[in-house]
Amino acid sequence: MPPLSFEVADGECLAVEAPSGTGKTRLLRAIADLDPAGGHIFLDGAERGEVAGHQWRRSVRYVAAEPAWWTDTPRPAFPSNPAASVRIDRLLRALGLDAALLDRPIAQLSTGERQRLALARSLSDEPRVLLLDEPCASLDPTSAAMVEELIKFQILSGRSVLLVSHDRGQVERLSHARLQLAKPAATTSDLSARGTPA
Asked: Could you count the other beta carbons within 10 Å of the beta carbon of residue 52?
């Protein structure tokens, strides 16, 4: 299969569609510089390999379908400066989450709470690009609707979003364009997001 080549502009959502096992998650992780991959990925003219990994991942944020946590409670995983605290409170309200959950042991949180907290965590320092892997997979309809509204707001705010979702209705509601993957899974990709770095 030839390398993928696509572009996502500021304020656009590209849905990545393909059967299970085709490599959608691997593509998102490669764009986020979490897995090795060939090809070239650009953000505002800067190639992934030209930017320090931690700086790239601060701008290009991957949100897993089953997010991992490396802290006993969620709070240490969030920025602690005053400006971020205001954003975090706003994000939690938008997702229907009580701020008290930040101090509850991760093991006591439901799967849906952990998933929504991970989305809030990913947005707390305002990344440029959001890579969403099944963002509503573990959510009830009410929580899923809140997540979709938050994603719409991120798009309207100028973020570039790549969305992997098996929910066709969600894809239709959120995406501006679709990328179809076919087997075998691609291992190289090009991403170019226009605009000025935040």
From this structure: 9
Predicted model pTM = 0.88
The end-to-end CA distance of the chain, in Å, is 35
Nearest to 145 by CA among 97, 98, 95, 110: 95
Q: Which fold, 6-69+126-193?
A: Rossmann fold (3.40.50)
State the pLDDT at residue 28: 94
3-state secondary structure of 181: coil
**Which tokens go with 156?**
């309207």
Domain parsing of the chain, residue ranges:
6-69+126-193
DSSP state letters, 106-170 = GGGS-HHHHHHHHHHHHHTT--SEEEEESTTTT--HHHHHHHHHHHHHHHHTT-EEEEE-S-HHH
Residue type at 126 in one-letter notation = E
Summarised one tens digit per residue, pLDDT across range 58-113 is 999 999 999 999 999 999 999 998 888 999 999 999 999 999 999 999 999 999 99
Q: Which DSSP letter does residue 101 get? A: G
Query: Distance between CA 172 and CA 53 in Å, rounded?
Result: 33
Count of all residues that appear for the chain in the document? 198
CA distance 101 to 11: 31
82-94 vs 141-156: helix axis angle to the nearest 10? 130
Q: Given a cut of 70, is residue 137 above it in pLDDT?
A: yes
Distance CA 194, CA 43 (A): 7
